[in-house]
Amino acid sequence: MQKTKKSIVKRFKVTGRGKLLRRTPGRRHLLGAKSTKQKRQSRRDRTVSPGHAANFRKAMPHSF
User: Fold this and answer.
1) pLDDT tens digits, 32-42
2) pTM as predicted
């Protein structure tokens, strides 16, 4: 039985259909230099690309 990688579980969320969501980077500081459009679009979570998601699923065996 494989253990869960806790650092990955904290950073990613599993949707009801099994997709992985991630936060959009670049929201911590230096926000005055970023455009309003860039800040607005970075509010929502993004889906993880399928190639990366396969590796993350192996690290979270009990989340699916």
Assistant:
1) 999 999 999 99
2) 0.85
